[in-house]
Amino acid sequence: MSDPDAPWWKTAVLYQIYPRSFADSNADGNGDIGGILDHLDHLEWLGVDGIWLSPVTVSPNADWGYDVADFCAMQPDLGTMDELDLLVARAGQLGIRVLLDLVPNHTSEQHPWFVDSRSGRASPRRDWYVWADPGPEGTPPNNWVSSFGGPAWTLDATTGQYYLHNHLSEQPDLNWWNDDVRLAFDAIMRFWLDRGVAGFRIDVCNIIIKDAELRDNPPATEDDDFEAQLFGQRPVYNGNRPEVHDVIRRWRRLTDHYDPPRVLIGETPVKIDALAAYYGQGHDELHLAFNFPFITAPFEAHALRRIVEDTEALLPAGAWPAWTGSNHDMARLASRWAGGEVPKIRAALLMLLCLRGTPVLYQGDEIGLADVPVAHDDMRDPLGVRYFPAYAGRDAMRTPMPWRAGPGGGFTEAGVRPWLPLGDTEGNVESQRSDPGSTLTFTRELIALRRRTPDLQTGVYRSLAAPDGAWAWRRGDHVLVLLNLSDGDVTLGGMEGLEGMEGSVLIGTDRRRGGEELSGPVGLRGWEGLVIETR
Ligand code: NOJ
Question: What per-residue confidence (pLDDT) applies to 3?
């Protein structure tokens, strides 16, 4: 049975916008809020219920908006506060809610708080950041490494202490043990929520609290994951501390005062047992938490099914999963999972939109947009610039949306150089919109199907037996999802839960199968998926 009282964010399809790359309304090569306003019709037509915007606040852009210099003012080349208010209002009229990105772990080194903090040991804001004396022989205070590589500490020559930064040295970490920092962020959240913003995606919310004693991280072992082995240590003390949950509960209490209900979506790059803890008791911490084991899994039935089952088993009662295959940091699903192959892209979209939980698409997923390789000279991501060729950074997944064919691709005007290269515009929005067989049409119809099918929105998830390479699950009482994530043909049926199956196809990755009546075993070609209404 579906739950008619489910809050909007449980039945929603969400969509991430990377504003600088969505649409450029003033021909300066940068996407902006005006561009989002210009394309609200696309979002409404697609059927999304909410958008979350990567940071639009003031930033010197050492990390493209994730180094915030003013949490309550707009970055001028992205737009004005009036435009943002207009976006919230117009989107709201179309039934689309607007969420912002909140970056509480760190600020820009140019934020007035940090300028003040580093001005002297007696600064009233000294304790707003994590400062520590050098170790013996002037070394950093402990062994922590930044998730962007290198030591997580930089020496401030003026005051003779090191400050902590879990990312770039231009992104000093705030000290979340300090009550004034907590109060400052309460005010920031209220500032936006009072303007009608529907909630926040919260940047690396798992690491905001650090070990109070700044203990060394333990060395990684060969049993640790790739990242821990790469950095040579387990991130036990520079984040993921139990006290982080106090802060998240505080944010939840603050958010719960708002009506209509607001939503907190955490960026939580942790394993599933830790992910579950960010939901607290199921109603007192994050509403949604991004599932990194899922997004980083290979596109294989066994691996993905296992993660979904573990998530279903470990989340507390009342908690609601979130499923995403792409974002501005990870390769787009069309490339990472699908290698650019259309049948695989459609299988991935069908999977995302048919699991129990809130699907979050990334701009371009709906047209099967693949990553666009960016030459070293054109790179803008500090990580690509720093680590090329060992690592090409995150520009490839941040390239502009191709709205139509031709110079500028509808992203910007012909003759204007976009901030990142546009890539091939062949599979653009305009051409796919008028093609009933396109990936865009498929995505739109999947979203519409989800909206009119309560079992797909809120029905329980139950795995069914399936042959190798395939994955089958039930949603609620009447929906069956069959997915073949392998090259070969498979036949499903005759197994527990699928014996004597009778039904009709609601949608298939092969569009010709829509409406097909089924009775008994069902054959699927390689990378084919079907959503079935059973009788
Ligand atoms: C995660 C964000 O998604 C990423 O883009 C950013 O570089 C880091 N957090 C630091 O804010």
Answer: 67
Neighbours of 455 (CB within 10 A): 21
Instruction: Give the closest residue to 308 by CA, choosing from 447, 465, 473, 469.
Output: 473
Contacts of 381 (CB under 8 A, 6+ apart): 64, 393, 394, 395, 398
Measured in degrees and rounded to the nearest 5, phi and psi for residue 412 equal -140, 180
Q: Is the Cβ–Cβ distance between 359 and 372 less than 8 Å?
A: no
Nearest of 57, 107, 94 to residue 79 by alpha carbon: 57
> Which residue, by CA, sits nearest to atom 10 of ligand 1?
66
Q: Is the CB of 63 under 6 A from ligand 1?
A: yes
pTM passes above 0.85: yes
Q: What is the rounded distance in angstroms from the CA atom of residue 363 to the CA atom of residue 352?
A: 14
How confident is the model at residue 408, as a pLDDT? 97
Percent composition of the chain: helix, strand, coil (DSSP 3-state, to 5): 30, 20, 50
Q: Which pLDDT score is estimated for 1? A: 45
Residue type, 322: A
Q: Is 173 helix (H, G, I), strand (E, B) or coil?
A: strand
Question: What is the structure's pLDDT at 421?
Answer: 98
Q: How many residues does the chain have?
A: 535
Neighbours of 183 (CB within 10 A): 10
Q: Give pLDDT < 70 ranges for the chain.
A: 1-4
* Whether residue 395 has its Cβ less than 6 Å from ligand 1: no
Q: Is the shortest distance between the CB of 329 and ligand 1 below 6 Å?
A: yes
**Using the 8-state DSSP alphabet, how is residue 484 labeled?**
E
